[in-house]
Specification:
The chain has 438 residues and is an alpha/beta fold. It folds into three domains: 162 residues, P-loop containing nucleotide triphosphate hydrolases (Rossmann fold), CATH 3.40.50; 176 residues, P-loop containing nucleotide triphosphate hydrolases (Rossmann fold); 79 residues, GMP Synthetase, Chain A, domain 3. The longest helix has 15 residues. The structure holds guanosine-5'-diphosphate (2 copies). One guanosine-5'-diphosphate binds next to helix 6.
Length: 438
């Protein structure tokens, strides 16, 4: 299902993060325990009165060329929100009152014509309500006073959000379809690949209903499986976007990754893996998405029998956390191996959804411990009582142990490798969670 996007914009310290934390759904604690998965996300799912939406914390984004100037950074935040969001929450500080920059940002937001809710935060009590009046001068309509800390008026705020996003019923997306995000830097061949991939298929191109944005998802069927290609960076509408899109292309790619089941990272064979590729691949990995790496423009490479192995080695070294991703050497131009992509996506999706029974897992755990005894600290050995699969997409396993502190990183790696050797799980990250005896 497409979820409307609500962006939160505002100067540092006005209380965006606090507000954000008060509104977004609590993360399931099981996810927080995953070692190594602590990075800040910028997208979060939220829900109010049965309506789901996604919130984006534009304050959490570092803009590369914003030269640490707060106003420039604010302007970028605002532009990003204008370009991407369905509703913008503009947060100001009711304790400090209006600041000079508030007006300038308000002007940028107002001229966009996007739905904007002016949120005066830090109105912690009824007596402070009078502080909201001066903000009428920003020309953004009625301000709403809230206290993110005391959770005051947040319900009214969310009601207003729903007034904008809840009016148009969002058409059900094809839930069972495999959602694909083709990601990669400009000019690696994403559009060409899309056309080559879809060349043989009967496709339906659909605007996402109920939104003001120009995202176009492509639906098609291939041998009985339904696919949806998520539009990234206006791929199918080149040249239509008039504001500096480059700056936001990464953000858009991340959004597509959030919505996808399988991310297809497209590389240019003549260029290899760039920093931006690593960033996006890292995001897909941490979000637990399936991944496939396509090395496109393979026609441009002089090859002998070792060339692809050499390329694979380089990719494995650069994207060290993503050893599980299949690599496809392809050419959108000559269509070499393009026909394999849909099957590969389907395969990875199946791997993500695979379930292993607890009895089979426990056999694996006993065998693994025989080959390689668990680590110990100060004479206390780690004991693994049993393991069970808690969820799919990504496959997530819970290990019940005597004391999680005794686990060693390398032993987790060993267990992950055993799982992969035995069951495959190709193209998908695996999460291992430790539970100790209380
Ligand atoms: P951000 O930089 O905009 O994300 O702001 P933060 O959420 O980090 O908040 C900045 C400071 O304002 C912190 O010290 C918060 O505790 C405080 N703060 C946030 N919301 C409120 C509020 O509703 N009332 C009061 N009094 N303080 C708040
Ligand atoms: P995008 O920006 O990632 O969507 O890239 P495009 O699909 O627009 O491709 C960028 C350029 O690379 C165009 O000139 C394409 O014709 C060219 N191109 C794309 N795929 C291939 C390929 O497999 N081989 C060769 N030689 N050129 C390609």
């Amino acid at each position: 299902m497409y979820k409307p996007l609500v962006a939160v914009v505002g100067r540092p310290n006005v209380g965006k993060s606090t507000l954000f934390n008060a509104i977004v759904k609590k993360r399931i604690s099981i996810v927080e325990d995953i070692p190594g998965v602590t990075r800040d996300r910028i997208y979060f799912d939220a829900e109010w009165l049965g309506h789901e939406f996604t919130m984006i914390d534009t304050g959490g984004i570092e803009f590369i060329d914003s030269d640490s100037n707060i106003f420039t950074s604010m302007r970028y935040q605002a532009e990003l929100a204008i370009h991407e969001a369905d509703v913008i929450l503009y947060v100001v500080d009711g304790k400090m009152g209006i600041q000079p920059q508030d007006q300038e940002i308000a002007n940028i937001l107002r001229s966009s014509g996007k739905p904007i809710i002016l949120v005066v935060n830090k109105i912690d009590s009824i007596e402070q309500e009078v502080n909201i009046y001066e903000f009428y001068s920003l020309g953004l309509g009625d301000p709403i006073g809230v206290s993110a800390v005391n959770l005051m008026n947040l319900g009214d705020l969310l009601d207003q959000v729903l007034e904008y996003i809840g009016k148009t019923p969002v058409e059900e997306d094809a839930e069972d379809a495999i959602h694909i995000a083709l990601i990669g830097r400009p000019n690696v061949g994403k559009s060409s690949l899309t056309n080559a991939l879809l060349g043989q298929e009967r496709v339906i191109v659909s605007n996402i209903p109920g939104t003001t944005r120009d995202s176009i998802d492509t639906h098609w069927q291939h041998e009985g499986t339904e696919f949806v290609l998520i539009d990234t960076a206006g791929m199918r509408r080149k040249g239509k976007i008039d504001i500096p899109v480059e700056r936001y292309s990464v953000i858009r790619a991340l959004r597509a990754v959030d919505r996808c089941d399988v991310a297809v990272l497209v590389l240019d064979a003549t260029e290899g893996v760039t920093e931006q590729d690593k960033k996006i691949a890292g995001y897909a990995h941490e979000a637990g998405k399936g991944s496939i790496i396509v090395v496109n423009k393979w026609d441009l490479i002089d090859k002998d029998s070792k060339t692809s192995d050499k390329f694979s080695e380089d990719i494995r070294r650069e994207l060290v956390f993503m050893q599980y991703a299949p690599i496809l050497y392809a050419s959108a131009l000559t269509k070499q191996r393009i026909h394999r992509l849909a099957d590969l996506v389907k395969f990875v999706s199946e791997q993500q959804n695979m379930r292993v029974s607890t009895s089979v897992l426990n056999e694996l755990i006993s065998d693994a411990q025989l080959i390689n005894p668990p680590p110990a600290k100060n004479g206390h050995p780690l004991r693994i009582y049993y393991m069970t699969q808690a969820s799919v997409k990504p496959p997530t396993f819970v290990l019940f142990v005597n004391d999680p502190q005794l686990m060693h990183f390398s032993y987790l790696r060993f267990l992950e490798n055993k799982l992969r050797e035995t069951f495959g799980f190709e193209g998908t990250p695996i999460h291992l969670i430790l539970r100790g005896k209380k």
